[in-house]
Design goal:
CATH topology: TolA/TonB C-terminal domain
CATH class: Alpha Beta
CATH architecture: 2-Layer Sandwich
Strand order of the largest sheet: 1-4-2-3
Number of helices: 5
Number of strands: 4
Structural class: alpha+beta
Largest sheet: 4 strands, antiparallel
Order of helices and strands: HEHHHEEHE
Shape: elongated
Distance between the termini: 35 Å
Number of domains: 1
Helix content: 40-55%
């Protein structure tokens, strides 16, 4: 029998678990809500996947902007509000009403601004509400 031993720093494991937790939270809870009469499940799934793929980048924004120190908490939740037009372009970006550091807001916006959202046939704007939870190491 061969036994392999690995040494991994505790903070590395915690960071990996945080990213995994956020990804699972996004994928399993189906937290995205779409308003304005659009019931197209395919578009909702695509939007949810696009944001879920960026959850680790959003977590990096949280860490680099020191929101845990800012809010004096080891866990911070935020809700991202987006309006997507039929051309798949971002019409509106907003975070919930907490007083986030500008560095966090700018970092999240810089990521969202570069995302490619799907086009859709309807002439409505999709209003997307997506919660995120970030945990300090």
């Amino acid at each position: 029998m061969i036994i392999l031993k690995f040494r991994i720093k505790k903070d590395t494991i915690q960071s990996m678990l945080n990213i995994l937790f956020i990804s699972l939270l996004l994928m399993l809870n189906s937290c995205a809500f779409i308003y304005s009469g659009s019931k197209d499940r395919e578009i909702q799934t695509q939007l949810h996947q696009i944001l879920a793929e960026k959850s680790s980048d959003f977590a990096k924004c949280a860490k680099s902007s020191e929101i845990f120190e800012h809010f004096k908490s080891q866990r911070v939740t935020t809700t991202l509000f987006l309006d997507i037009n039929p051309q798949g372009q971002l019409d509106k970006f907003k975070l919930d009403d907490k007083e986030y550091p500008d560095s966090f807001v700018n970092c999240v916006f810089d990521i969202v601004e570069l995302l490619e959202f799907p086009r859709f046939d309807e002439q409505e704007v999709i209003e997307l509400e997506q919660p995120f939870a970030f945990t300090e190491n």
